[in-house]
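Case 445 in the screening queue. Each case pairs one protein sequence with one candidate compound; here the compound is zinc ion. For every case the pipeline is the same: read the inputs, emit a complex structure as tokens, and attach any notable structural observations.

Predict complex for case 445.
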Amino acid sequence: MSEAELVLRSTRVITPEGSRPATVAVAAGKITAVLPYDAPVPEGTRLEDFGDDVLLPGLVDTHVHVNDPGRTHWEGFWTATRAAAAGGITTLVDMPLNSLPPTTTVDHLRVKREVAADKAHIDVGFWGGALPDNVKDLRPLHESGVFGFKAFLSPSGVDEFPHLDQDRLARSLAEIAGFDGLLIVHAEDPHHLDAAPQRGGPRYADFLASRPRDAEDTAIAHLVAQAKRLRARVHVLHLSSSDALPLIAAAKAEGVRVTAETCPHYLTLTAEEVPDGASEFKCCPPIRESANQDLLWQALADGTIDCVVTDHSPSTADLKTDDFATAWGGISGLQLSLAAVWTEARRRGHGLEDVVRWMSARTAALVGLSHKGAIEAGRDADFAVLAPDETFTVDPAALQHRNRVTAYAGKTLYGVVRSTWLRGERIVSDGEFTEPKGRLLTRTP
Ligand SMILES: [Zn+2]
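Case 445 output:
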């Protein structure tokens, strides 16, 4: 251990082989060794002993809408990355829409990177966007280091980011397959949405009926068929409908290159508990019934769903009106995602090893960040220190994201993040932040 600058010790270190007492040696921002708990620490080496608090790899959240620049009053890099750090997240990948400009050309990517550079408290990467008219921009964006491309199959909610019809989807996906890129998709079918009853108003039951499961199921079926035909790599974003799970499982078994994610709100909140008019619970696709939620958990356990990401998508509070049809759709989850998922996971008999697999290892793998997502030699020294059996009650005033609207207000959650570490430096500890130390990430070719 002679070259270590820092040594972290815990009786519970989550490694790819499981949880065990260990000592983790760090030098130059990297993990150099994972050693036995009682490994001798050379004199003069800084030792941080976390006792029985758990040392886990920093989470990698591949689905975050930062909205900066252009809608920074909704969310910006400074506030989003602080909220993430406070929640144990050390890497996020920013979605291409809701900022102005959207990340749909190399020039726009440059603008985004300039804005993020000195505000990032954690590491930040970028998705590109696939629009009906930017097929020619996809390869240059790929070569500029975006991690893949997002497309909508139904209206996105903002005019500057139009959706792809089936022909345009085929064209964009063929282009992306040409350089073996990744297409990530908001999968709701617009025809099924149009055919659903659109009553509007404050009743959650009416909103749920307006975004039916078959809109998701049909869009995913189309996507899987295109991926199969083109041998392309696709990823289903924010899966909510459990009815689509057999289709995804069958496609995977057949060798179609498809992965899927779900979100903390689908896993921890249910349609039955959403009060009428409470649009802080509005997102698309919607939070569904508790029986649906049980099947999502089962799919996580059996690997049909690969990972869990926040889809943190805030707006100003005034856009969260009590009419579900017109209120902004998006749930702010960065700071609470680990605690929310862990609380429900432990109730259902899952371990923290599972949570780490879904929220760190698999998300890092999704975007090819081979130096993130695990506590093992050679990876970045990114960690969260968690008191897993300690509870807290969610107080919106304690949240770091810009507009403190939350669907979790008043909930009691397990799992207090004591500190978060980025490349061997403690970036937040008991609510105290350092200056931003995040870096901007590009896809590894
Ligand atoms: Zn999203």
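Case 445 observations:
- The chain has a mean pLDDT of 97.
- The first helix runs from residue 77 to 86.
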